[in-house]
Amino acid sequence: MTSGWLEDRVWMLLNDALAAYRDSPRAFRWLQHHAQRFEEPLRIAVAGPPQVGKSTLINAIVGEGIAPVEVDGGAEALVWYQDGAQPRATLHSPHESVHDLTVTRLDRWLHVDSPTGAPENVNEIVVDWPTRTLRHTILIDTPGAVAPGTAAPDGPSIMDRAAREADAMLYLVRRAPGTELNPLRMAPDTPVGRAAPVQTILVLSRADEVGGGRIDGLLSAKQLARRHRRDVRMRGLCQNVVAVAGLIAEAGRTMREPQYAALAELAALDREGLDGLLLSTDRFLGASDTVQTLAVRQDLLNRLGLVGVRLATTLIRQGGTDLGALAGQLVRRSGLTELRESISQLFVERRGLLKARSALLALEFVLRAEPRPAATGLSAEVERTVAGAHEFRELRLMAALRGGRIRLPSELDTEAQRLIGMEGTDVSTRLAADEQATGAQLWALGSQALDRWVEHAENPLLSHAQQGAARTVVRSCEGILAELAG
């Protein structure tokens, strides 16, 4: 089942609104902007408090060192990273003037020189970077949304900018729940905002700090993320909670042979000597009898952190005999693999749904800001569209099943997750059918699934919440059959 119905419906509403607001230049430009966004790659904002690792995570996702980009006057600027034919960076001022920046690419790292004669205030910085990772997504690096432990006065405005410009969001925190989540609690109190809080993945971005810096702390961080998924305080704030050691993830994606060689030299030391060396940062940097210079040890510490160095040397001892093997292990253990799978599953595969949601929010904004008789019926149509969008219900049920807020009997849980699209949104994947299955075979599988779940929805032995989940699966089965019929 796809979000084709929803996309078509929202596209029609956008065009109706464009006709109704043709004589309002500001509203017309805003609606036109969102109509154009339908054809663009998915926009994902990376937001959170200052110094929480946003740029580090962007580098880990892309696999190259492109963040951060900092220029004079750009303290509150959003930085956009998108695919391009060659490395390029431009400044955009609030008055829409554009200034090119001098960009160099050295060993797969981006270097940007601050411009001369640029505007004092920078609204956006757009970075073009040729990479396959950014062909289907645009990443938006945001300023700190809120100071640690406090609610900064400018927090909501920054989050508002990010929410309006992005279709989805990775929100990074050190710990949850807590005051760092306050910006997420400021979601728009509108029909779309209330009915469709489906665009956020919460990232515990300092997973390597859990457990006192021990290697098994990464496992503890993943267990903590699973507990947070079940926390009722997370309901309505995010679709998933993932623990990621950003620095280790970035190192795994950007490590080169010199760093691997230095780590291999450390791993070759006797176990007792290496453990003593890695007890603290001071010991690691202060030792004078190691095989590396201070500069090499400082570089390893900057790239991996002390926990990352411990983990990397342990992995090399256990069989990480080349750069590729070590890098793959670092990426997997850092939690980045799980995050990328979640991004693909919840965001990329549902691009049309998230684009439609962004457009519905834009419509609501215009209808509230400039009410007029010609647009009277549009507000009701927006509410009806949100109420009828089954795709939103699927995502909310997905989050509830993943987090354990709704528990189905084990024999039903796996099938329910598959039918609502947790493993993939195409019909064959939802029905667990062979790729070569004919239309008739898919129809038979879909009809059988529908019959089973209609019975589950009426089963008195299931709780009210479980019956509600089953009704959502029934609607998904009906959608599969409708798509096959179409």
TrEMBL record:
Top-rank taxon, per record = Bacteria
Show the InterPro entries listed in the entry: Dynamin_N (IPR045063), P-loop_NTPase (IPR027417)
* UniProt domain Dynamin N-terminal: residue ranges: 44-173
Its name, as the record gives it, is 50S ribosome-binding GTPase
